Amino acid sequence: MVNWYEEVLARKEELLKDLKELLKIESVKDESSTSTRFPMGEKVGEALDLMLSKAGSSGFHTKNVDGYAGYAEHGDGSHDDMIGILCHVDVVPATGEWTTPPFEPTIRDGKLFARGAIDDKGPTMAAYYGLKIVKELGLPLQKRVRLIFGTDEESGMSCMKHYQEVETMPSVGFAPDADFPIINAEKGQINTRLVIGPATEEYLGEVRLVSFKAGERSNMVPEQATVILQGSVDHLLLEFEGFCTKQGVRRKITHLDDSVEITLYGLSAHGMEPHIGVNAGTTLASFLRDFDFTGTAAQFLDFLDELHLDFEGKTLNISYKDDITGPLTVNPGVLHFEEEKGGTVQLNVRCPVTTKFEETKEVLTAQVKEKGFEVEDIKVSPPHHVGSDHPMIQALQEAYQQETGLEPTLLSTGGATYARFMENGVAFGACFPGKEMTAHQKDEYIEVEDLLKATAIYARAIYNLAR
What we know:
This protein is an alpha+beta fold. The protein has 11 helices and 24 strands. The chain is 30% helix and 27% strand. A hairpin with a 2-residue loop joins strand 4 and strand 5 (111-113).
């Protein structure tokens, strides 16, 4: 009988060394360095190359799939009966003020801090080591296991869409990119870009909104918002300091030659849980709307103010919930306005699995039009749900319970993982129940002990599934 945790402990230093090497790579999608070899940019490509190199040197069959993805494979089963483990090596930008540099992995108080530690480089390395342990022990498998590394999970999942076109996608497996025990239901998404035109009339207000900027990704709660103002701003600045003190947020005021720049600092969070963060953009707009702005600047601010703290889409008349995945959520993730160009608002809407998507799109489009915006782009990702009686789920439940002694309950999530690319795919770890999930936040971390436990769970789960 294999003691999976002891096998992990025997490889602990090697595991941490390899993970730190991966975490040092700033693998944020970078369109300025894209190429045929690196479709998501050089750093993301570097992270993919590192994983494939390590897997190849350990004796796995590997393949780079046109730079979009890659895989490490073990076992001789048929492609039709293949187990998939879908991970990603790209990360979101490391916004905010970190205690230690986000790409210099540091262990403090038993926690490994770095961007990607929990999303998804830590779990990726845990799954890789789980498969590595199964291989090194020479355990007999009846099914082929393919560990697939994606490169664009955080920005649209084009990597897996490309992989589907040119390779065999496993129909059964898991994505180590969420929470334990098992997530068998994922919300669908509506991602939309709303636009409002520039001011066409003569500006009449006492205060002039030259520019407004907040957020970098629609699936992140904006942590910082900065505006440039002109006009009679003295009273506004006095009010701003009191407002920030009352809200418990930091601010910065910079006087320029003929204008003033004010910045409000919120708290980043994952777009699937906007209520956990403090949206700097909508918070700042809720302050500014009380002042004398006119035209499209006023419409832009009024719209953001209406969205402020409305996490369930009531303002947009699209609120909905079901018993499987809970309430619809809305995250205004990227907010821009320039006086001469107009404004854009990117919304990330996470919808329960029973949502009527076409009807929701129609209502959303009509509502934003009433508020002066047009829908420039709208994309829908359908929800994903695997029945609780599937034998794959039962195999994962057994692995989790045997390694932890905890009840392997089934969960749902507002997040979108690669699991949805497999007909019978679920999200499986690596954040344990009751633990803080720091994905997309500053000072992201994974507890070292949890990393080791997750690796043991993955090793046992892979063996369960493949035999």
